[in-house]
Design brief:
Blueprint (H helix, E strand, L loop, with lengths): L7 H19 L22 H13 L3 H5 L5 H4 L5 E3 L4 H4 L9 H14 L6 E14 L2 E12 L9 E12 L5 E9 L6 H7 L1
Parallel strand pairs: 1-5
Antiparallel strand pairs: 2-3, 3-4, 4-5
């Protein structure tokens, strides 16, 4: 009986393993795909007050809490007035104490909680329409508006639509960017932005 060459077995083994790898490719077996990278920021330097409103809308549309936070006054970095949210008139009855010391830190926690409650393929949008033109005085601006929010979340209980009126007061920082330092929510009888902030 003829003896096989001593190197034939390693050769056959590697050939067999190579064949298995090729079969895996044919069967659609692939290495795991890397996770999607975060989308780039859709924030635009707010060199005019209307850009702040557009940035706010983009923050909802693209679900970017960084873009949302860049719309609000930052007292730590730019020596600006402290951000203040004035809830709708019935807030003290519905949510006693909830907004007494509300700050930008609370805004960030709220917006991130809201994003977490909305599945990626759900509707999340805000519509803001001007009630009166921007009223400018030196480095501050007042803006009155009507809004509606569609929030298709996965929680049981809270509404999915919020409506009302509001007032933004904006200030210009050392970079000449406009920021919201005062936000008043005005109820029109429907679930409003105050409710949305309290429930998420």
């Amino acid at each position: 009986m003829r003896r096989l060459h001593p190197y034939i077995f390693p050769f056959l083994l590697f050939s067999f393993l190579g064949g298995l790898t090729a079969c895996g490719d044919l069967l659609g077996v692939r290495d795991p795909e890397p996770p999607d990278r975060p989308t780039e920021s859709h924030w635009t330097p707010a060199i005019t007050p209307p850009i702040v409103i557009e940035n706010l809308k983009e923050a909802f549309q693209y679900r970017e809490f960084e873009t949302y936070m860049k719309c609000l006054s930052d007292t730590h970095n730019y020596n600006l007035p402290a951000f203040r949210f004035q809830p709708s008139a019935v807030s003290p009855i519905k949510y006693p104490g909830k907004f007494d010391a509300w700050s930008t830190a609370d805004e960030q926690i709220w917006f991130q909680s809201l994003l977490a409650a909305c599945p990626p393929d759900s509707l999340l949008s805000v519509t803001i329409t001007e009630d009166e033109p921007f009223v400018e005085s030196l480095d501050t601006v007042k803006y009155q508006f009507t809004y509606s929010l569609d929030v298709h979340h996965n929680r049981i209980g809270p509404p999915t639509r919020y409506e009302g009126k509001g007032v933004f007061k904006m200030v210009r920082d050392s970079r000449n960017y406009w920021l919201i330092y005062f936000w008043e929510d005005i109820s029109t009888g429907e679930p409003d932005w105050t409710d949305l902030k309290a429930l998420f």
